[in-house]
């Protein structure tokens, strides 16, 4: 079965500092990986995806993610965090054996302090 | 705004009751997905429909059912409700046959509280 893991429940970072949110995956075959963000009382917003191609994927709001096959990781990064980046971040993997359903990690809460 | 709409935003009901959650996908999207978000289970896939047909099923309880109508909107029916069904229910949609077909766009969710 496809799965992703987010090892950190919460990440604290000062505004202006680099932000990294970790994700590791376990899939058979080539992974289709995604990052979503959830703000309070809102739905999930798509940030970026990796399907194939460059290992560095650029997404919305200045976020990027690095796909590392040898380490089975897909970490989300932002060079300079903003207070408004404080939210809940989810890593997800597409399950090709079950339509296009997404299997999500447990989520990482990001708190950016001014 | 993702373009996916869900109604109602909030629903409070009693145990044993039945409710219907409604979702309208983004214009042109044929696939609709339902997810449940709860504190103990996290985000769980329930069911997927594609152009009116069930495509994939997750850990959806037998008390729950869904359908997708010819106009592509979808409804999730929850019956014999239990306290543990209290959660945020999300609908998502995706396109097919485009470079973005694997991207799912989520609605704002329906918060269900069972008392």
Outline of chain B: globular
Pattern of helices and strands of chain A: EEEEEEEEEEEE
Low-confidence stretches of chain A: none
What overall form of chain A do the CA principal axes indicate?
globular
Strand content of chain B: over 45%
What is the number of helices of chain B? Answer: 0
CA-CA gap between termini of chain A: 41 Å
Structural class from helices and strands of chain A? mainly beta
Mean pLDDT across all amino acids of chain A: 94
Rg calculated over all Cα atoms of chain B: 13 Å
How many helices of chain A? 0
Quaternary class: heterodimer
Helical residues, percent of chain B: under 10%
* Average residue-wise pLDDT of chain B: 94
The helical percent of chain A reads: under 10%
Extended strand count of chain A: 12
| Helical/strand content category of chain B | mainly beta
Q: Assess the beta-strand content of chain A as a share of residues.
A: over 45%
Helices and strands in order, then pairings?
The complex is a heterodimer of chains A (114) and B (115).
Chain A: E1 3-5, E2 10-14, E3 19-21, E4 24-26, E5 33-38, E6 44-50, E7 56-58, E8 64-68, E9 73-78, E10 87-94, E11 102-104, E12 108-113
Parallel strand pairs in A: 2-12
Antiparallel strand pairs in A: 1-4, 3-9, 5-6, 5-10, 7-8, 8-9, 10-11, 10-12
Chain B: E1 5-7, E2 10-13, E3 19-24, E4 31-38, E5 42-50, E6 53-57, E7 64-68, E8 74-78, E9 87-94, E10 105-106, E11 110-114
Parallel strand pairs in B: 2-11
Antiparallel strand pairs in B: 1-3, 3-8, 4-5, 4-9, 5-6, 7-8, 9-10, 9-11
Outline the structure in words.
The complex is a heterodimer of chains A (114) and B (115). Chain A has no helices and 12 strands. Chain A is mainly beta and 114 residues long. In chain A, strands 2, 5, 6, 10, 11 and 12 form a 6-stranded mixed β-sheet that branches. A 4-stranded antiparallel β-sheet of chain A has the order 3-9-8-7, with no helix packed on it. In chain A, a hairpin with a 7-residue loop joins strand 10 and strand 11 (102-104). Chain A is globular, with a radius of gyration of 13 Å. With 115 residues, chain B is an all-beta fold. In chain B, 0% of the residues lie in helices and 52% in strands. Chain B is built from no helices and 11 strands. Chain B has strands at 5-7, 10-13, 19-24, 31-38, 42-50, 53-57, 64-68, 74-78, 87-94, 105-106, 110-114. In chain B, a hairpin with a 5-residue loop joins strand 7 (64-68) and strand 8. The chains are: A mainly beta (114), B mainly beta (115). Chains A and B meet through strand 6 and strand 11 of A and strand 4, strand 5, strand 6, strand 9 and strand 10 of B.
């Amino acid at each position: 079965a496809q799965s992703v893991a987010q090892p950190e429940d919460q990440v604290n970072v000062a505004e202006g500092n680099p932000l990294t949110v970790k994700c590791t995956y376990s899939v058979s075959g080539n992974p289709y990986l995604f990052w979503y963000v959830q703000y309070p009382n809102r739905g999930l917003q798509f940030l970026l995806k990796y399907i194939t191609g460059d290992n560095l994927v650029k997404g919305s709001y200045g976020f990027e993610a690095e796909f590392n096959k040898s380490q089975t990781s897909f970490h989300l990064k932002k060079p300079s965090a903003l207070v408004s980046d404080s939210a809940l971040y989810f890593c997800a993997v597409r399950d090709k054996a079950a339509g296009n359903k997404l299997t999500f990690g447990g989520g990482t809460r990001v708190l950016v302090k001014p | 705004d993702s373009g996916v709409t869900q109604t109602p935003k909030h629903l409070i009901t009693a145990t044993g009751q039945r409710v219907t959650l409604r979702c309208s996908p983004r214009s042109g999207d044929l696939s609709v997905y339902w997810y449940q978000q709860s504190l103990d289970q996290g985000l769980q896939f329930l069911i997927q429909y594609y152009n009116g047909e069930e495509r994939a099923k997750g850990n959806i309880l037998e008390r729950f059912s869904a359908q997708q109508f010819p106009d592509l909107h979808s409804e999730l029916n929850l019956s014999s409700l239990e306290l543990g069904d209290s959660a945020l229910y999300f609908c998502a949609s995706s396109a097919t046959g485009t470079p973005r077909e694997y991207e799912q766009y989520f609605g704002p969710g329906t918060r269900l509280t069972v008392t």
